[in-house]
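Re: that backbone. Tokens:
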């Protein structure tokens, strides 16, 4: 079972979210999500500061869990999330190593978009609307 399917199952069975319509999060949901993500980032920083390797791992997994859960809350199915992830991954794989000058923290371990890079937006729209086309 994919990560997205597991998180979707959690959101449906434990939290009771059964959204069948695609939508942006409400202001309250968005505020909650930002708070939850920030809490996990703070937990990661604390774990890193304390050299707590397991805590670092746990907080990063929780970030993934909250991010995937946000997609469920937006009415995106696990199957759509998986397809979208694969499209974004393919676009990321088309990037090249380089420094993103507008990033606040610089590293040689970063990736930039080459001139012929294709944005995933059109493919994401296709995935979200493929049920409408049937």
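Recovered sequence:
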């Amino acid at each position: 079972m994919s990560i997205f399917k597991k998180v979707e199952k959690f959101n449906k069975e434990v939290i009771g979210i059964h959204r069948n319509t695609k939508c942006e999060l409400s202001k309250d949901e968005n505020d909650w999500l930002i708070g939850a993500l920030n809490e996990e980032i703070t937990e990661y920083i604390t774990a890193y500061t304390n050299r707590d390797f397991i805590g670092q791992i746990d907080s990063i997994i929780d970030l993934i869990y909250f991010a995937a859960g946000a997609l469920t809350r937006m009415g995106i199915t696990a199957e759509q999330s998986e397809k979208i992830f694969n499209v974004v991954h393919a676009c990321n794989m088309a990037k090249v190593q380089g420094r993103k000058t507008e990033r606040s923290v610089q590293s040689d371990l970063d990736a930039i978009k080459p001139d012929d890079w294709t944005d995933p937006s059109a493919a994401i729209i296709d995935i979200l609307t493929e049920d409408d086309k049937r």
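Residues 15 and 66 are 13 Å apart (CA to CA). The chain has two domains: 1-76, 78-134.
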